[in-house]
Design a protein that fits this description.
The protein is an alpha/beta fold. The chain is 42% helix and 18% strand. Helix 6 (189-193) links the parallel strand 5 (175-184) and strand 6 (196-200). Helix 12 (346-361) runs parallel beside helix 14 and helix 16 (443-460) runs antiparallel to helix 17 (467-484). The longest helix is centred in the first third of the chain and has 26 residues, at 13-38. The two termini are 36 Å apart.
Length: 532
């Protein structure tokens, strides 16, 4: 039998303490998500509705198939910056007429939907997901273009948005633009470079330069409608493929466009008959200790997300602080790498490299569950080759071609974050639990290193060391690193695709695996040089 057993005691005090801490984190997370949902606030939302317009998320809700899930991505973008949480853009994966699509929607209640630097990063991430996974891209457009005070951070990199649209089209991935209001300046190129366009009558305004700019540049007097109105683009310029009577009609037309694509995935759909895990997903709330120095068994996580809690472990007695093995998730075969005791030794690194190579031979997607403090340090380990063995694991991850999914469950520190396929290693999707932390090292370790270096420097100069100042600096550094390692901080910088409720992990991974199988799943057939 390969069904995972469980040793979790839901009635025990440790479980209840862990669960209470996780629920507190989820409550705090909900408060941050609420800021994104609020958009520009009640005043601007009411003004938007008074003009007969729908908010961005309501447009998406009417666009996707009734009762189907919408996986919102990067909802906390711009958190901790000078810009509103959510970055005036909603992005995600939804099903339209049975077809999985990447959907983006400007939020015009936030500064008219103008793009700030975080809007750009969020939009580029959505384009990347569409391209890598061969998902049609549907853009719901209503934006005044760049947020001009921040143009220095948008203008030059912003050209990648239009580049992406043309590359998607060249790759045969359909793009659809639906214009509900302003689509001006650079934003005019979104419908201009999309395969299919829908413009709403008397609402859509698409022009490179509005009436004031035209007056300044040429001296010509022109009104919005004759310069860039939907009717003009439908009858004169030909930019509009479809002229919609109102927003509901535009969304109806868009659904028909997607239907007529007759888009086909290269892989299978999720298996509706896949056996659910044998243990309750609710129990995921009490697995991760509040103190990440306390280890927990990642098999308890695996048992609550994979089909039937069925898991074939690979090399269970070798390199035991990294759990590796095979399972199915919503019917999709996956290879899983999950940190057990936190530290990665030489044995774990070599085991991971072999396992990743096997997954590539079998064309098997990989799921990484992070809880690592990094690779082991110390004289014995350096002499034992931890650098070359860690490099072997990173080499395997870097050159692996099968799709990777990463979930930061607990700690994800140092080069262990890299070996476990952190953001820089381009996993198809990366999510975090509210319990996760990620940084170059733990706050206490980093502050301690700085203290040792400062102490040695003072000794080398023959100067007394200020212990009181040292304690103050250490406390400040620990506080800073702790704040910067929290998932909401990292998510605000788009270092993940969202912070999720642990109970949603199986569903989120299922949506992502389905999206991944819209494109071919093929492993690497060659690797770089492994330093043996």
């Amino acid at each position: 039998m390969t069904t995972l057993p469980t040793h979790l005691d839901p009635a025990g005090p440790e479980y209840h303490a862990n669960r209470a801490a996780m629920l507190d984190k989820l409550t705090a997370l909900d408060a941050e998500h609420a800021k994104a949902l609020a958009g520009g606030g009640p005043k601007y939302l009411e003004r938007h509705r008074s003009r007969g317009k729908l908010p961005a998320r309501e447009r998406i809700e009417l666009l996707v198939d009734p009762g189907s899930p919408f996986l919102e991505l990067s909802p906390l973008a711009a958190w901790g910056s000078d810009y509103p949480v959510g970055a005036a853009l909603v992005t995600g994966i939804g099903v339209i007429e049975g077809t999985e699509c990447v959907i983006t929607a400007n939020d015009p209640t936030v500064r008219g939907g103008a793009s700030n630097p975080w809007t750009l990063r969020k939009a580029l991430r959505a384009n990347e997901i569409a391209l890598h996974n061969r998902l049609p891209l549907v853009s719901l457009v209503e934006s005044g273009g760049a947020d001009l005070p921040s143009q220095k951070e948008i203008f030059i990199p912003g050209g990648a948005l239009f580049r992406d649209l043309t590359r998607l089209s060249a790759a045969g991935v359909p793009t659809v633009a639906v214009v509900f209001g302003n689509s001006t300046a650079g934003g005019a190129y979104v419908p201009g470079m999309s395969d299919h366009t829908v413009l709403v009558r008397e609402r859509a305004k698409v022009f490179l330069g509005g009436p004031p700019l035209v007056k300044m540049a040429t001296g010509e007097d022109a009104d919005d409608e004759s310069l860039g109105g939907a009717e003009m683009h439908a009858r004169v310029s030909g930019l509009a493929d479809h002229l919609a009577e109102d927003e509901h009609d535009a969304l109806r037309i868009t659904r028909r466009i997607v239907h007529r694509l007759h888009w086909r995935k290269t892989g299978p759909d999720p298996d509706p008959t896949a056996a659910p895990p044998k243990y309750a997903e609710e129990e995921l709330l009490g697995l991760v200790p509040g103190d990440l120095k306390v280890p927990f068994d990642p098999r308890e996580v695996i048992a609550r997300i994979v089909d039937g809690s069925d898991f074939d472990e690979f090399k269970p007695r070798y390199g035991p602080s990294l759990v590796t093995g095979w399972a199915e998730l919503h019917g999709y075969p996956v290879g899983i790498l999950a940190n057990a005791q936190g530290v990665l030794f030489s044995e774990e690194s070599q085991k991971a490299a072999q396992f990743i190579q096997l997954a590539n031979q079998r064309d098997r997607p990989l799921l990484f569950l992070h809880n690592t403090t990094g690779y082991m340090v110390g004289q014995a380990y350096e002499q034992g080759g931890i650098i070359k063995h860690g490099a072997m694991m990173i080499n395997a991850v870097s050159n692996s071609k099968v799709p990777h999914l990463s979930v930061l469950v607990g700690a994800s520190y140092g080069a262990g974050h890299y070996g476990m396929c952190g953001r820089a290693y381009e996993p198809r999707f990366l999510f975090a639990w509210p319990s996760a932390k990620s940084a170059v090292m733990g706050p206490q370790q980093l502050a301690g290193v700085l203290s040792i270096v400062a102490r040695q420097s003072a000794a080398a100069k023959g100067m007394p060391y200020d212990e009181e100042a040292d304690a103050t600096i250490r406390a400040m550094v620990e506080q800073q690193i702790e704040a910067e390692s929290l998932p909401v901080f990292l998510s605000g910088r788009l270092y993940d695709d969202g912070v999720i409720d642990p109970r949603d992990t199986r569903t989120v991974l299922g949506i992502c695996l389905s999206a991944i199988h819209s494109a071919p799943v093929e492993g690497a057939r060659g690797y770089g040089v492994f330093r043996m």
